[in-house]
Design brief:
two-stranded antiparallel sheet; disordered C terminus; alpha+beta; globular; about 170 residues; two-stranded antiparallel ribbon
């Protein structure tokens, strides 16, 4: 949903948001349905688009949409790290990484520096859980302001899920 649709009081794209007003923003966490392109995935994981395209030659171009449930191969990171560290760095669930990489069995397994990493798409369906504190950091906001604007959330550590929207 667009910002305007979620905030009808704005009256359109040229509406003014006063500093005293709350603003409802969508936080796509689990089950994101937006189509992603290879270029967006590269940006999301801080990988050069050309390197990601080379690792996934079956994708026609950097701007072609990636199919739902597609498994992409991320180029080797150049450094060994545990599954847990890779999951944290990439913002993914460890279980998603383990499931798509047969050589990995647990979060403490080390991913060789020369090993490409397979990850499932869409990214939104496999992101690590986000809480209100994470959302505040992501959007450059204060946790107290989000808590005040979302009275149904009592704790900044509460995981957000589904299509929940925060103000």
């Amino acid at each position: 949903p667009s910002i305007i649709k979620l905030n009808p009081r704005l009256g359109g794209p040229t509406g003014t948001i006063l500093s005293s007003q709350g603003l409802i923003v969508p936080i796509p966490i689990n089950g994101s349905r937006a189509e992603l392109t290879l270029a967006q995935v590269a940006d999301r994981f801080s990988i050069k688009t050309k390197a990601l395209h080379k690792a996934n030659p079956f994708i026609s171009s950097a701007t072609a949409p990636i199919q739902n449930n597609e498994i992409l191969s991320l180029p080797p990171s150049g450094q060994s790290e545990t599954v847990e560290a890779a999951a944290h760095r990439l913002g993914l669930k460890s279980s998603s990484i383990i499931k798509q990489n047969a050589i990995l069995k647990s979060t403490s397994d080390e991913i060789p520096s020369t090993h490409p990493l397979n990850v499932p798409m869409p990214i939104g369906a496999h992101l690590a859980e986000m809480n209100l504190k994470d959302a505040a950091a992501k959007f450059g906001m204060e946790v107290k302001d989000l808590l005040r604007a979302n009275p149904s959330i009592n704790d900044a550590g509460t995981e957000l899920s589904g299509d929940r929207k925060s103000v």
